[in-house]
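User: What would this chain look like folded?
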Amino acid sequence: MEKNILVEKIAEHLEIIKKCSITSNHGKVLLATILESRYPYVYPRDSSSASMLLRQIVEQDLDPSGDAFNLLKGVAQFIAFVQEEDGQWGQRYGLNGQNKAIYIQEDNTAYGGIILANYLLTCYSRQEEPDELEDYLKRIKKAIQYALKYFYREEIFLFFSTTGIHESAIEKGYSIWVNHVYILFFNLILQLTRKFDLKDLFEEELSFKCRFCQSVHQRFILSDRFVRRITKDGTFDLRPDVTLISPDYFKCEESHCDTCVLGENSDIVNNSVTYLVDNLWDSELGMLQRYLPFTEDIETHIHAGNGPWIQYTAMLAQYYYKTGAVEKGDVILTQIDKYRTTEGYIPEHLSTKRRFEEFIRLEWEVGLDAKKEFHPDILLPNLSYDFIVEELFFMKKSYDKIKEEIAKEKKTVIQFAVPLMWSHVEYARALIARYVYQSANKKDTVGLTT
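Assistant: Here's the prediction, encoded as structure tokens.
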């Protein structure tokens, strides 16, 4: 792929990502979807992934208009605005910065810091010292101090989580995803320390880094592959999960600790990816489910009918490109393209009429889905019931719309949350991974014309 073609393709996704943003007095409000869609909220998780893409776009010189840098700067400004006084970030925020969190979710404090760090590091790559440097460094320091005090378990050298990427108790304990989020956060702090010559600013926080990284790289391995979670009572959770790709997804090539090896064993990574593909590939719709849908398990959310999730599937494409399996990556992106709308929008996840109707019958109508979504073990303490009512309203509105589409348009494949900003982020990151690999190996790119 020629660089000018890549720039055009990245610009297409960036335009859709920008459609999910709103300019406010406090920076750029980067919503999970366009305003009128399912999730009119800012999720630090989604915005963190976007910050990784926007930094890549700038550093790879794929941003002739400057839109990516301006968006990253605005996103960092908004995230800084919503940080709580004690240093933490919550699950999600409204348009004006109001805290709209429902779940206890410990990795958001890392996501907020990652966004600020990516902005500062992008400024460094542009050979400029940002006006926000001192303020953002203080916020990053406060965030990691909060996380180490409240989420880090010194006895086992891991971060504990109640919920994380899946927003359910299926993650309660020590999850591979959350701990690799914190590895990335530590690594970005190390980059900041070196590039901005910060000397002793993060000395105390970085003293935890090597013990923590060693623990993560040892404790999540069993029988030559990763496990998704160590439960709160110490049991290995052996179920397949897309989070098994997190050691590769959160890998930070630049920052290696001087006293411990951060690079994951390639065979273990490959074994883990093979395991999740073998177990989670949707044979009917193609692409990856996020985990297996055990309906009767109170900790397993089905979310309106099981099916593949686009953003996680695009992460798999990134892995294939980075490891040189270009044809496998191309197959995945071509499969994703099949489910784009006429506007070029990519959804969050897919299901079928049959699966959706089964979900309505077995979970929604009998109240099981609500019990899962609002299980007391995962809700924030003293949560206002207004938040639950608001979430139920959006859920019912979404499901009623699907029922109408099935009845009127005779839909057999259902698309949720269109467009999902995060899906476009990961698709664009896959394109960049493809370009970087082929440039490094000096091979001409074929195919991938969409």
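The longest helix spans residues 385-409. If you want, I can go into more detail on any region.
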